[in-house]
Design brief:
heterodimer; A: mainly alpha; 11 helices; about 0% strand; B: mainly alpha; two-stranded antiparallel sheet; 14 helices; about 75% helix; flat
């Protein structure tokens, strides 16, 4: 083989090798994060962590029960706000909207999706906290809910559009009106996909910290109802990580592991359960 | 069609009403209106967001005008607010991030899109998606306790002794600072570059690849001279998306940038970013002007990411269309 031929083969192998190396580097970051959190946070994942309130500084023990419940409550509020708006708008885009209005709504949703989460926090602060004059679960949940809307909207639209035409035509041929077709045939056929979108949106916002800093704020005790400041896992991790105490750092690692576990379980479970169903369907 | 017969019997002026009534009775118009209301909510919320950012920042905009972006003093006590140190920090850290993330992300995307085993590639892509799902506060946690100490002890002293002739690598090693924030951001935006680039690379038509191979190109020559140029606009789009992410990223940056509103040439020095100052000072902002200045920073962040996201989407769309027309 000529010298030039050999050189070209060498470049080929070297460059492909480099891309492989880059790919491995990228993915190994994930395993590094998982491993490091498991190592540092794993030893403190105890029953107390899930059932106790934070202990005063210097006292051993204590947990983050209030923050775990707080995250659950915030996600609940976000779901109540984000899911209906997202799903119904998705139905509009896929089934009812004309070309012009649909383009406009879709474009706005994409715009909303790109807004940095801290700016969403400012928005919730201006709309709710400023008016009520205090931080609340509602304000935090609203901020998270707004972030969910565009994600759910786009996935709902996408899955509804994937429902095969013959299925719709079959329903129409039996004399059902458009809304009946959508409600009883199209949406049920796409339900796995729609739920997948909602779950992934939940996973996406579960770890959000920035929009909660000045909406839900935080709390070291239990927070009742939806009208008071409330603790959440991400904000606790932040507060504990930048705090000066060694105990707090330990707890931050543990909370980080629990939060990452929650996000990953949501992601993986959703994909395993629903994506297979979707694949089988289409 | 009995309904049509009804319509024909009516006076001409009443016909449209009758048709509307029939459609209403079937329920389609109601369903249309109900879903339309929800869709309008999305537009309404977005419009309200822009409106709120605009009016809540009015005080600061009127007081400082354009000088807001050219002033480097940030002194809440004296009521002096200038955005320059934050703009500098945000741009510098994002530039470091892109410098590292673009080659890494593009390389990974090429590997994933060209690798022959589809199942393997999908599994890899799933892992990259999981990486994108890691909450930013967790990146910040690792940044404070792992990255910053490592930089302070092992990396920055070496860099300053070898490359100290550059002002970038001069000065004491703090650990936290522009370099730490840039590195964390790089890791955080790689998944976005990978997933979008991989998609545009896959959308390059088969014929293009086969033609290149048929004239005797090696695999790498095919990738570097045919596939990547073909997907160029889409790849640039993915970089814009990543840039928008990096500019708006808050928690991880807040935790490692050092939070000091100074402009330093040294990458080792602590600095500040737009998102970080909002996160840190918003709840402590006393006085309307202070709050309004912070909200104006939010407005800037919003506008910049808005433009970048719009451009990115256009570019990705253009590549996808090119692929489908020629493919």
């Amino acid at each position: 083989m000529s010298l030039r031929g050999r050189w070209r083969k060498f470049v080929n192998a070297a460059m492909l090798g480099i891309t492989a190396l880059f790919a491995i580097t990228t993915v190994s970051v994930l395993f590094f994060i998982l491993g490091y959190l498991a190592y540092h946070g794993g030893k403190n994942v105890t029953w107390n962590f899930f059932t106790r309130l934070p202990a005063p500084v210097g006292e051993p023990g204590g947990g983050m029960a209030n923050a775990i419940i707080g995250t659950a409550k915030l996600l609940f509020v976000a779901l109540v706000i984000g899911a209906p708006v997202g799903i119904f708008s998705g139905v509009y885009l896929s089934e009812f909207g004309g070309k012009g209005p649909s383009f406009f709504v879709r474009y706005t949703a994409d715009l909303l999706n790109g807004v940095p989460s801290i700016v969403i926090g400012i928005f919730a602060y201006a709309v709710i906290v400023m008016r009520a004059q205090h931080f609340s679960t509602l304000a935090g949940g609203f901020a998270l809910g707004v972030m969910m809307i565009p994600i759910i909207l786009r996935s709902t639209e996408q899955f509804l559009k994937a429902v095969p035409r013959p299925l719709r035509e079959g329903a129409m041929a039996l004399g059902s009106s458009k809304w009946r077709t959508v409600l009883t045939v199209v949406v049920p056929a796409a339900s796995s996909g729609i739920i997948t979108g909602v779950m992934l949106a939940l996973a996406r916002i579960a770890g959000e910290t920035a929009p909660l800093l000045f909406t839900a704020f935080s709390d070291r005790y239990w927070s009742s109802g939806f009208n008071q400041p409330i603790a959440s896992l991400p904000v606790m991790i932040y507060t504990y990580a930048i705090g000066p105490y060694k105990d707090w750092h330990e707890q931050a690692w543990t909370a980080g592991l629990v939060l990452l576990g929650l996000v990953f379980v949501l992601n993986v479970a959703t994909r395993l359960v629903f994506v297979r169903k979707i694949a089988a369907f289409s | 069609m009995p309904a049509r017969a009804h319509v024909a019997e009516l006076a001409p002026s009443l016909r449209p009403l009758r048709i509307l009534w029939d459609r209403l009775r079937r329920g389609d118009e109601i369903a249309h209106v109900v879903t339309l209301i929800f869709a309008s909510t999305v537009v309404g919320i977005t419009a309200l967001l822009v409106y709120q950012l605009w009016i809540q920042s009015a005080l600061s905009r009127q007081k400082f005008g354009w000088a807001f972006f050219a002033t480097r003093v940030w002194d809440p006590v004296a009521g002096q607010f200038g955005a320059l140190p934050f703009l500098y920090g945000t741009l510098l850290t994002s530039a470091i991030a892109l410098l590292l993330a673009v080659p890494l992300g593009l390389g990974t995307a090429i590997f994933l899109s060209e690798f022959p085993l589809a199942r393997f590639s999908d599994a890899f892509a799933f892992l990259v998606d999981l990486l994108a799902a890691v909450p930013s506060v967790i990146y910040g946690l690792l940044g404070i306790f792992v990255l910053a100490p490592w930089l302070r002890v092992s990396v920055e002293p070496v860099l300053s002794s070898r490359l100290g002739f550059l002002p970038l690598f001069r000065g004491p090693a703090f650990g936290v600072g522009f370099l730490a924030a840039g590195l964390i951001l790089a890791v955080m935006v790689v998944p976005f570059i990978v997933s979008v680039s991989r998609e545009v690379l896959i959308s390059v038509p088969r014929e293009q690849r086969e033609a290149a191979l048929a004239v005797g190109a090696t695999r790498w020559e095919m990738i570097s001279r045919v596939v990547v140029p073909f997907a160029k606009t889409g790849i640039i789009g993915s970089v814009f998306l990543a840039l928008a992410r990096a500019l708006g990223e808050t928690m991880a940056v807040t935790m490692v940038i050092g939070n000091d509103p100074k402009i330093s040439a040294s990458l080792f020095a602590p600095g500040y970013s737009i998102a970080a100052v909002i996160a840190n000072e918003f709840t402590e902002a006393t006085g309307n002007l202070y709050l309004s200045a912070l909200i104006e920073l939010g407005l800037v962040l919003f506008l910049v990411t808005f433009v970048l996201n719009g451009l990115a989407r256009l570019l990705v769309l253009a590549t996808a269309q090119r692929g489908s027309i020629q493919g």
